[in-house]
Design a protein that fits this description.
By secondary structure, this protein is an alpha/beta fold. The chain has helices at about 10-20, 25-35, 50-55, 70-75, 85-100, 125-140, 150-170, 235-240, 260-265, 290-300, 305-310, 325-335, 380-400, 415-425, 445-460, 470-480, 500-505, 515-520, and strands at about 115-120, 145-150, 175-180, 185-190, 195-200, 220-225, 250-255, 275-280, 345-350, 360-365, 375, 405-410, 430, 485, 495. The protein has 2 domains: about 85-290, P-loop containing nucleotide triphosphate hydrolases (Rossmann fold), CATH 3.40.50.300; about 325-520, Nucleotidyltransferase, domain 5, CATH 3.30.420.240. The protein has 18 helices and 15 strands. Helix 6 (about 125-140) packs across helix 7 (about 150-170) and helix 10 (about 290-300) runs antiparallel to helix 11.
Length: about 550
């Protein structure tokens, strides 16, 4: 190699490379150097706190008329230059300290640097993810990284798109090629395409092998998991193999939606000792919408799981964003029925769609969902299901109780049951689980709303079968295993599908047929009786003599 005299001017790229070498263990200094905080209004969203402004006084205020931009004396005391929020500055400073402590020499492997961050919504973690990728790529030749997120859309439209914006604005944008195709999301060095790169991978379990074999013995292998609470455990396990050589780093970010799984274990459980754990409250971040947060707290309560997860960055009290809390179900199973002679009789009928599902007929009288047996059947056709519903209605009429409402699941073959019962003169109310909710501001579908109304009843007044009653254990499992989330559009409650629930829980999970039948009894509000039950004759007469169970027909 030819020696270059110190008097020889460095090219722009040589000077840039020399500058970046000085930021090897200074990620915050790198961030303030790499982007045009003083000229690019699109990134001037956060004001540095005085503590950090003193370290980076060159960035200008967003207010162009502010005298601090032109007055050196004023500028030195200026307290609102632009950069990252305080939590991100502290994160990067701590990362720099950990890098110095490891003191990787390029040959001998060091202990992994592992961070896991739970947070409320809207704190700007996507920005920090982009900056971490850029920091490692720019300061560590031949580093190799993998980034993932909970869904392919999240990965492509948010996590990776965010990297694209910050990469384009960076001083090193010409050193690397950024691609964002659906199946080809990469950032790679122009001269070392295979050896010096970062790739985005979906986190489907069947794709777990893509996370294996990430080695960079003379540099930094790294993994970044966005929305890590929803990343399968198997993906976390596979990445362990990529943290055995070089200067390995892992960074996990997410809303703490589940108090089980590897993200929870890393933050709160058995793996916590291996991670630097951070928790970020949305109320302490400059860019969050404080009015909306205040409305959430007023509506749900300071100590609610909703506020814990979406605002405080804390894990929920109930399991996994479990829709109905186990403690509430236990309490409902311990309550004793209270006699209410004006309580309406409501029957919910969940019609089996698949061979391993049950058709369930669930009677509820006011707040009493225990006193009358739950009926379950397998392998019935529409005529047979209709016959079982008629039998149930007749048994109640025989003791002077006429159903105020019979709600039947009208999806799939349930539509045939509805039509047949109506043909026989029964007043049947059809319910479509996928239909629109009455309260469209809160719930996505009718099924979500029914379960929501049922959840409120369980928490306050509903009497459920005891665990020792027939079907009690199964009902408890079905009520407490269902998880929920919020839609991206409109922030509406939506339950996980039966299919997703079965896949998540594995072979031991049954379809929540009993719980769905009970939820159907909450499809609409039903008025109390005007005549005391048992002191009247059957009110609604069958207009057809046809009995599908009578052998003479």
């Amino acid at each position: 190699m030819t020696d270059v005299s110190r008097d020889t001017p460095l090219s722009d790229d040589e000077q840039l490379a020399e500058d970046l070498a000085g930021f090897y263990a200074d990620p915050l200094g790198y961030v303030m150097y790499m982007w045009p905080w003083d000229t690019e209004s699109a990134i001037q969203l956060v004001e540095l706190t005085p503590e950090y402004y003193k370290r980076f006084p060159g960035a200008k205020c967003i207010n162009s008329s502010c005298p601090g931009n032109n007055d050196t004396k004023h500028s030195k005391a200026h307290d609102h230059a632009h950069g990252l929020d305080q939590w991100a500055c502290e994160f990067l400073d701590q990362l720099g300290a950990d890098i110095k402590e490891r003191n990787f020499d390029g040959t001998h492997a060091v202990q992994p640097i592992q961070y896991t961050t739970s947070s409320g919504h809207g704190i700007g973690k996507t920005v920090l993810v982009a900056m971490l990728i850029k920091f490692i790529a720019d300061t560590r030749p031949f580093s190799r990284g993998i980034v993932t997120a909970n869904t392919s859309d999240q990965l492509r439209t948010k996590t990776w798109a965010g990297l694209g914006m910050w990469h384009r604005l960076s001083l090193t944008s010409h050193w690397f090629t950024y691609t964002s195709g659906r199946n080809a999301m990469s950032l790679y060095h122009n001269d070392f395409k295979e050896e010096w790169r970062c790739d985005a991978q979906t986190c489907r379990e069947e794709n777990s092998e893509a996370f294996a074999g990430l080695h960079a013995a003379n540099s930094t292998p790294y993994y970044i998991f966005d929305e890590a609470s929803a990343v399968p455990n198997s993906i976390f396990e596979v990445r362990e193999g990529g943290t055995t050589d070089g200067e390995p780093m892992t960074f996990d970010f997410g809303n703490p939606t589940r108090n089980s799984g590897r993200f929870f274990d890393n933050c709160k459980g058995k793996f916590k000792k291996d991670y630097r754990v951070l928790c970020v409250d949305s109320r302490n971040v400059q860019i969050t919408n404080k009015d909306r947060i205040d409305r959430w707290i007023a509506a749900y309560g300071e100590d609610s799981d909703f506020v814990k997860v979406r605002v405080k960055g804390e894990f929920p009290s109930v399991g996994s964003m479990q829709f109905i809390g186990t403690a509430d179900v236990d309490a409902a199973m311990e309550r004793e029925p209270v006699v209410d002679r004006y309580a309406p009789l409501i029957i919910g009928v969940d019609v089996a769609r698949f061979g391993d599902d049950d058709t369930v007929i669930y009677p509820r009288i006011g707040n009493d969902a225990r006193s009358f047996p739950i009926e379950r059947y397998k392998g019935l056709d529409t005529i047979q299901v209709s016959g079982k519903v008629i039998e149930c209605i007749r048994r109640f009429r025989a003791i002077g109780m006429d159903p105020s409402a019979v709600f039947v699941d009208g999806g799939g073959i349930g539509a045939g049951v509805v039509d047949y019962l109506r043909h026989l003169g029964y007043d049947i109310l059809e319910v479509q689980f996928g239909g629109g909710a009455t309260d469209k501001e809160v719930y996505r579908f009718k099924s979500d709303e029914m379960w929501g109304t049922m959840r409120e009843a369980i928490a306050t007044k509903l009497v459920l079968p005891k665990l020792t009653d027939k079907g009690g254990v199964e009902l408890k499992d079905q009520l407490t295993q269902r998880e929920f989330g919020y839609t991206i559009q409109g922030n509406k409650v939506h339950l996980e599908s039966k299919k997703d629930m079965k896949e998540r829980l594995g072979g031991e999970a049954a379809s929540p047929d009993i719980a769905d039948a009970l939820a159907l009894t909450y499809a609409q509000e039903v008025a109390p009786l005007r005549v005391v039950a048992g002191e009247r004759t059957a009110g609604k007469l069958i207009t057809s003599e046809f009995d599908p169970l009578d052998g003479k027909y």
